[in-house]
Design brief:
This protein is mostly helical and about 450 residues long. It folds into two domains: about 130 residues, no CATH class; about 300 residues, Glycosyltransferase (Alpha/alpha barrel), CATH 1.50.10.10. The chain is about 50% helix and about 10% strand. It contains 20 helices and nine strands. The strands form four sheets. It has a three-stranded parallel sheet. A two-stranded antiparallel ribbon has the order 1-2. A two-stranded antiparallel ribbon has the order 6-7. A hairpin with a 3-residue loop joins strand 6 and strand 7. Helix 7 packs across helix 8 and helix 8 runs antiparallel to helix 9. The chain is globular, with a radius of gyration of 23 Å. The mean pLDDT is about 95.
Length: about 450
Amino acid sequence: MLLALVAAASLAADLEQVARLPGEPSVVAAAGLTADDQPVLTLENTTAFDAGSTRRVVVRGPAAIEVARWMKTRAPAALRRQWMISVLPSADGLDEASLGRWLTFQAVDLVVELQAADAHPIDTFRAALARAPAGHSREHETIAARVTRDPLAVAKLLASQYPVTPSISYIPSIAWANTLTLSMIAGDASLRTKVEQQMAPWRIEGKDLFGSRIQLTSVAGTFAFANLGSRDIVAKGVEAASRVKDGDVYEYGQGWTDDMFMATVVLAPGGQNDLAVRMLIAYASRLQRPDGVFNHAPNGPIAWGRGNGFAALGLSESLNAMSEHDPNRGALLAIYRRQMDAVRRLQAPDGMWNEVLDEPGSYREESATAMLTTAMARGIRGGWLDRSFVPVVERAWRGVAAHVAKDGTVIDVCTSTGAGPTKRYYLDRAAVTGADDRGGAMALMAAMEINALRHAPTVSAQ
């Protein structure tokens, strides 16, 4: 065990040394975790989801670091223009699913395996490049096609399909609200008709909203009804979201970061933003770490990705509804900015955020990335963040787009997750790929926000 730890530390030091050299690859990250939770280290560049003509090569094996150093210091300039390199020195202990996921989202054109016994790894590498078929791989072309789509094109694709299962929950409500906005922007009345039909059981037929057991996730499902003038449903949502129990916890919530969004998305536009602000500050006092990241819950002290997305969205909803002269604005802005600064530092090389934010070996997760992208883009538009966040958001959007297939299915969405006491509990949460209402709604929301960021006027940073 001691020898393994020494070897891991030595590998990390070697990778960091090469990363600091001018040029790419420049970021030490991880392709996954071993069974004993050790990160499988990588050296990556920040262009995996760029759509340029450069070809992409992954070099595997112990000599891969030497090759990366050569590429950054002595390789011919023409070769560096033609190829972008990522490095996986060792895949020992890495499961096949994690390896396949990492290679796929490196948009790799060529994989070069270097054996430990190879006395001339640079020559072997150059020969492999010379033999490589012309053009890009199917994987590269697939990713490039996804990331070059206009955000509104992605939004239209997702709005046409989600939600698959209408219900009174925050997930369909996010899809409905954004689809209605898209309908106006795109001049597509069919999208509005689709939403009206899906919401009709509650708006027209009087179907019960919450059942016998009210949950804040259902309460949040009422916010989109304001877009269709269903004031009675909105009022019921505001009334339920306003209930608070001892200890500044929402009556129908769990005390998790989830509550920060589920209640605020109803209260802030419903005339109860003062309550939302007070509760956001209270929740942050319990859940926001000194580094700015949020733990998921008092009994779930882990920086779960989607949990941070909930906190960020809740903060942005309240800030959006808040007067500039509100006495609590400074406190709320400070909470929001600390989180945004923290998540910016934790962004993966390809622009994604991990399922556990501060665990680079956890998978890069679609819904958390979409939610944090949305909250950060809102901050830029609202003047809560300066323009230095724009490249962060644009890289994140390319990551989201890369995880939305051409048929509207989504890739690597963390399954439904309650609070858990250990990091392993969160790391074991499955990644869903396919038609998924949660992932589809979050990507739709991000697409609409990126479109607004690119085309709507922004407020100067305050």
